[in-house]
Amino acid sequence: MALSGRFVLLALLGLVPVLLFPGGGTVLGVVVALAVLLGLDLVLAASLRAVIVTRAEPGNVTLHGTAASVLTLRNGGRRRLRATVRDAWQPSAGAVNPVQDVDIPALESRRMTVRLRPVRRGDIGARHVTVRSHGPLRLAARQRTFDCTGLLRVLPPFHSRRHLPSKLRKLRELDGKAAVQIRGAGTEFDSLRDYVRGDDVRSIDWRATARRSAVVVRTWRPERDRRVVIILDTSRTSAARIEDEPRLDTGIEAALLLAVLAERGGDRVDFLAYDRRPRARAGSATTGNLLGQLVQAMAPLEAELIELDWSSLPGQIRAVSAHRSLVVLLTALDGGAPEEGLIPVAAQLARQHVVVVAAVRDPMLGQMLRERENAAGVFRAAAAERVLLERAAVSAELRHHGVEVVDAEPHQLPPRLADMYIRLKAAGRL
């Protein structure tokens, strides 16, 4: 019934008590009419006891992608169900149309699709679905909340994937798959060929030379099937926001690019997210797609507001790989006391492994250095200069112990870490 029709019906019903009780006034008539309409509308509203609500899981979606949550509502009652349905997703799910109207005849079912555009990585849930059954006049309604849980896993976007083709080309050049041949790179035997002027005499294979009566040299290629262990710091320092994302998310991007690149390069990759206990594990030793395993393991990670337990980190790495490996620590250079945690542990690991420390540098520090128009700007520039000097001192101390350092801004960290891996590969240090 249209809105104007409801007011006409209300007015007509309001005349009844006025005619019966001329001295009662119009107010009494309106009150009685409204009570009659409300009661009648509530009686005619479909009962929700026979309504069944089921949900189809939306599955996985990458950050800023789109997903659909499908609800199926079955009206098992005898009356037509005219209802408003609200699917109670968390705000970060970005539900576009969580409230919808449905009209379901008796003993029939209808589907309701809610579009989701998540704005945060991780596991996002919905616990309830609320159904409000209206009467024909929509003046009164019955309401019930159904337990109908749903889970949407929002995967890391892997924006650094765009750097992968160029890094793979460089890696293929090292392996001799492209037109460029890098002579003498690596220490893994590749093949034999005739000696040419300029070859290193130390590469001459004397046994093969004796058999062929011609000078034969060995060729080498960068090592393959090495171990790459990536440690992602999930302690309190990873919660700091740099530019438009937490430091943890930048570390995830860098870890994804390095892991995929190393796997394509023939190396075995192990990933560990750690603070005081392991938060996630993944590796190429297990069956399945490494990238799929990584994004599933990284998706629910959150920064923990606790300090990283540096003393137990070497034991965690030994549990992953007992052999010489490339160990990449994605952590902070300016968190806590690096001379008590990061530096001694990295130096200890460098005695057995090739260690790389990768850290995110806030671009705001460079901007503060340039803005010195007033006294406040000068003080901010001095503070930024001190932070940069402290980071440089920590980096110099790490390099003194044989640790490689990659200190870059958020968008530069993933490709620079990949370049470091390629340089180590080319130098035969892995």
TrEMBL record:
It comes from Pseudarthrobacter psychrotolerans. PANTHER family: BLL2464 PROTEIN, SLR2013 PROTEIN. Residues 192-364 form the DUF58 domain. This is DUF58 domain-containing protein. Pfam families: DUF58 (PF01882).
